[in-house]
UniProtKB/TrEMBL annotation:
GO MF assignments: pectinesterase inhibitor activity
Similarity section: Belongs to the PMEI family.
Organism phylogeny: Eukaryota, Viridiplantae, Streptophyta, Embryophyta, Tracheophyta
Record protein name field: Pectinesterase inhibitor domain-containing protein
Keyword Signal: yes
Ranges where the Pectinesterase inhibitor domain occurs: 30-175
Superkingdom as given in the UniProt entry: Eukaryota
One Pfam family this sequence matches: PMEI
Signal found in the keyword field: yes
UniProtKB keywords: Disulfide bond, Signal
Signal peptide residues on this chain, from the entry's feature table: 1-24
InterPro entries reported for this sequence: Invertase/methylesterase_inhib, PCW_Enzyme_Inhibitor, Pectinesterase_inhib_dom, PMEI_plant
PANTHER family linked: F14J9.2 PROTEIN, PECTINESTERASE INHIBITOR-LIKE
Length: 204
């Protein structure tokens, strides 16, 4: 009896700790506008909006924090899918299916690595390379072909994984570009400021 009570208390405690973290944070007005401007371009607005809200840490989140969140979600989805494919591969015996899934395994390994780079480039404000790297991920994803089914799944489970990855790449491109363009004016004024500094230096 004592043991059961112990289990009950532990379960209640676990729920108590977990529930506040499961609840989605509600975005404030300007943050929701930002989210809208990212998701409006998405082929699945609802999913885009839901994914962001699930990972939002505060009601007021600026573009840079949103972009960081989106890159982190992309990393998580890519690495989760990599593990998912690894688990499927362990049970597959058919040669052709194995070849197909191995290609996808490599694709998601690359997607994970590139998005880790993207997040680093973002941290270092290397926006040019960041945008280039993001656009390379959409080409790489195309190599993971999913036009075959596998038992016990009726449909290839990677169809949905790829769809979500594509949407995350799209979201990354849109918010990444917004960050880059939002800072382009700052960057150019800095450059022209330097130019005039050197001009003065040379003419003096
Ligand atoms: C995002 O996806 C939409 C819908 O598929 C597409 O029209 C748009 O061009 C994409 N944007 C980018 C930056 O890839
Ligand atoms: C551009 O960079 C500045 C300084 O690093 C930053 O404060 C600002 O939020 C950035 N703009 C956008 C749109 O992210």
């Amino acid at each position: 009896m004592k043991f059961l009570r112990h289990v009950f208390v532990m379960a209640a405690l676990a729920l108590y700790i977990l529930i506040p973290r499961i609840e989605a944070v509600k975005a404030d007005g300007p943050t929701q506008e930002l989210i809208n401007s990212i998701c409006i371009e998405s082929e699945d607005y609802e999913l885009c909006n839901k994914i962001i809200h699930k990972n939002l840490k505060a009601p007021a989140t600026n573009l840079k924090d949103l972009t960081y969140i989106i890159f982190s979600i992309a990393i998580e989805h890519a690495s989760d899918t990599y593990i998912f494919i690894g688990n499927i591969l362990r049970e597959l015996t058919d040669h052709e299916e194995r070849v197909g899934f191995n290609i996808c395994l490599n694709v998601y390994s690359e997607e994970t690595a590139i998005f880790l780079d993207v997040r680093n480039e973002f941290r270092h404000k290397d926006y040019e390379r960041m945008i280039l790297d993001i656009s390379s991920t959409i080409e790489i994803l195309k190599n993971c072909r999913v036009d075959f089914g596998i038992p016990p799944y009726m449909e290839n489970p990677l169809i949905e994984k790829n769809r979500v990855m594509k949407i995350l790449i799209n979201m990354s491109t849109v918010s990444g570009r917004m960050v880059k363009n939002g800072n382009a004016s700052l960057l150019s004024s800095l450059v022209s400021g330097l130019d005039s500094f050197f001009f003065q230096y040379l003419t003096n």
